[in-house]
Amino acid sequence: MATYEFGTLIRKIRIEKGLSQEQLCDGICSQKTMSQIESGEHLPKGTRFDALMQRLGLSASHYYHVFLGADAFEAFEKQNLLCDLISHRKYDEAEEMITALEQDKLFKTGTSLQFLFNAKATVLLFKHLKYEDALELLYKAIKITKPKFNEAKVSAYLLSFEEIEILNRIATCYARLGRTEEAIKLWFSIKDSIENTYYDEREKSKKYPLIVYNLTKHLGLTGRYEEAIELCRKAKAMCVSNNRYFLYPALTSNELYCLKQMGNIEESKKLITLAYYGYMMTEMHEEMENTIKYAKDNFGMEF
Questions:
Q1: How many whole angstroms separate alpha carbon 287 and alpha carbon 289?
Q2: pLDDT of residue 234
């Protein structure tokens, strides 16, 4: 019965959003499999389940207990654990887990393998600083679900969260390699894709502020201050309206940097106080220390 209910849900929302089966399943599964999912003959598992739900702008986690079997839920739990290790910068533990998952049958193909490639590339990028190696792995990852991947068409793509993460890290590699304009162009394309295809504001808010943070940081560094400020304020408003404050202080830091460069010192001083206490509340200690130093060096302020 659960299989039938899931297929009905997928079909209903797909039609409401004006998507064809081919558009929804592109790179995730065949159109034949998509038809079987909608008719109740097949139930997608794990990361394939994630990708379909995310392309529809839905929170996959809300449906796991209803639709997923034991193996798929086990993979979901492992995936979440690895994500937590990476987000808390525990890269040594993350590497150990990646090595173990490479031998796990649940992570050998499809979107599960894509997730593993992305995780491995992230460690290469942020722990080992091997940008070219990370980039090569990220290209392999995105081509699992986008075999004909074309960077010029990203803004028109219907992207899952995993695809957004991969493209974000590709742009980060470009920036670390000095290819700043390519990075900015790709971040703009990801931003446009999210704006055009994610209809649910709460789902959009899970990735949009991150992309805007990276984009505005590099817009600021290249002197495009007004563009950066406008985007920071838009993303901050999204954080507030959806109760997602983790990136609020970082966006505030980007905004105040641009305002300072434009000569608006008083507004910058107000915002740096807000950024400092935002970092304190989210326990981002390294960012707090950087803010303390920046405030002292540029405004003579002490926290």
A1: 5
A2: 97
Tokens of 69: 């079997």
Mean pLDDT of 74-102: 91
Q: In this predicted structure, which of 9-13, 40-44, 175-179, 254-258 has the lowest mean pLDDT?
A: 40-44
Query: 275 pLDDT exceeds 60?
Result: yes
The answer to whether the beta carbons of residues 177 and 134 sit under 8 Å apart is no
Alpha-helical runs (H) found in the chain: 2-16, 21-25, 31-39, 46-55, 64-67, 70-87, 91-101, 110-126, 131-145, 161-176, 180-197, 201-204, 208-221, 225-241, 248-261, 265-281, 285-299
**What span, in angstroms and rounded, lies between the C-alpha atoms of 83 and 119?**
8
What is the percent of the chain with per-residue pLDDT over 70, rounded to a whole number?
A: 92
Q: What is the pLDDT of residues 55-66, one digit of tens each?
A: 887 666 555 544
Q: How many residues does the chain have?
A: 303
Q: How far is residue 235's CA from residue 187's CA, in Å, rounded to a whole number?
A: 14
* Cβ neighbours for 96, distance < 8 A, ≥ 6 positions apart: none
pLDDT, tens digit, for every residue of 119-146? 999 999 999 999 999 999 999 999 999 9
Q: Which residues lie closer than 8 Å to 135 by C-beta, 6 or more apart?
A: 121, 170, 173, 174, 177
Whole-angstrom distance, CA of residue 106 vs CA of residue 253: 41
Q: Report the candidate in 140, 83, 82 with the shortest Cα–Cα distance to residue 113.
A: 140
Q: What's the DSSP call for residue 157?
A: S
Structure-block tokens of residue 11: 């079909």
DSSP 30: -
> CB of 215 within 8 A of CB of 184?
yes
pLDDT of residue 3: 40
**Angle subtended at Cα 123 by Cα 249 and Cα 25, rounded to the nearest 5 degrees:** 85
Give residues with Cβ within 8 angstroms of 137, minimum separation 6: 117, 120, 121, 124
